[in-house]
Design brief:
The chain is α/β, with parallel strands linked by helices and 358 residues long. Helix content is 42%, strand content 24%. The two termini are 21 Å apart.
């Protein structure tokens, strides 16, 4: 599976453009604020239906336009397809697959897969567990619509349970209501935890291998799922009941998959707490590269790799190793300058215009 072409209209600083991609390494060059990251964002939108930026969707519409469009052309082992997204100032965005509008994001997931990484993804290692849960959720959802549904359902139930914890119901009535939510929450929690446990088990050896490659065998990376230990629904219900008084005093649910985390270690040391910035960066990149293997194993097709301004953050040896790795799958990588003797397609961008596409 690969992207052969993208068309943009009124998308951020792109008035109108069409870009064809090579099946291997595509290098997107240009100075800062010219539209390189915008291009990767547009591709990623067509992977998961959302941006990797925390912005309002209407912000992607060019100031001179009333709507924006993204259309990607995908070549598959059997047949081809298109994904089109239309943003409007007055309506919700529309997503079409092969020209047919879809009703749910879950229908888009898996149409084609991608992995995105930028220096900002360092938060995957350094910051809150929420970032590492999001990492798991995005990846698993690309290969399992069941997981996406479970996660959506779980969050709805969790919201309802938290709402009741803050209500003014008499204690006995509240306990009866909470018991109902506990049953429903536990059913989803059990399945979500199993998905995440399996994901981390599958990811671990690939992340170890990727990190060993990038570090030239000098470091060993390990990852561990930190989450609920109970495997039976009844045990999860009991844990929720045990935490009731605590939850009531705080006004929110303190136990469940929404508190999960991943522990990342290098040479047996917690990299989040004790790792250098260089180690944290390489660890985060290794997790992302490991995603490629997981997605390929699950879908039997290679995902597209989207790398934003990564080369500027690595030393020369790791740059060369990363570029060598990029030969194994279709890659779109942005940079300000590219001076490496490697077979690739250069796409030069300035002010949202394509100066070179060869």
């Amino acid at each position: 599976m690969e992207i052969t072409k993208i068309e943009l209209f009124g998308y951020r600083n792109y008035e109108m453009c069409e870009i064809e991609f090579d099946s291997k390494l595509n290098v997107i060059c240009g100075e800062n604020a010219q539209g390189k990251t915008n291009l990767l964002e547009a591709v990623y939108y067509c992977v998961v239906g959302k941006s990797f930026r925390a912005s309002r969707e209407k912000e992607v519409i060019n100031l001179n336009k009333n709507l924006a469009k993204i259309k990607v052309y995908i070549k598959k082992d059997i047949g081809n397809s298109t994904v089109e997204i239309i943003f409007s100032r007055t309506q919700k965005k529309t997503i079409k697959i092969n020209g047919i509008p879809i009703k749910k994001i879950s229908e888009l997931l898996g149409e084609f897969n991608g992995v995105f990484f930028s220096p900002d993804e360092l938060k995957l290692i350094k910051e809150s567990p929420e970032d590492r849960r999001r990492f798991m959720d995005v990846d698993i959802s690309q290969t399992s619509k069941q997981y996406f549904y479970l996660l959506t359902r779980y969050n709805q139930i969790l919201q309802n349970r938290n709402k009741q914890l803050k209500s003014n119901l008499p204690l006995e009535n509240l306990k009866d209501v909470i018991k109902i939510w506990n049953e429903q929450l536990a059913e989803c929690a059990q399945k979500i935890a199993k998905f995440r446990q399996n994901f981390v088990l599958m990811l671990a050896p690939h992340a170890k291998k990727a990190h060993a490659f990038l570090s030239d065998g000098k470091e060993e990376l390990d990852i561990e799922y930190i989450g609920i230990k109970e495997t039976e629904k009844k045990d999860i219900v009991m844990a929720l009941e045990k935490n009731f008084e605590k939850d009531l005093s705080l006004g929110y649910t303190t136990y469940g998959p929404h508190r999960d985390d991943i522990k990342v270690s290098i040479n047996g040391v917690d990299v989040r707490t004790y790792g250098s910035q260089g180690q944290q960066r390489t660890a985060a990149l290794s997790l992302k590269l490991a995603e490629l293997y997981i997605l390929e194993e699950a879908t039997k097709t290679k995902p597209v790799l989207l790398l934003d301004d990564v080369l500027s953050e690595l030393d020369d040896n790791r740059k060369k190793r990363l570029l060598q790795f990029c030969k194994s799958t279709q890659t779109l990588i942005t940079c300000t300058k590219f001076n490496y003797a490697i077979d690739c397609k250069i796409i030069q961008i300035k002010d949202g215009n394509i100066l070179k596409n060869s």
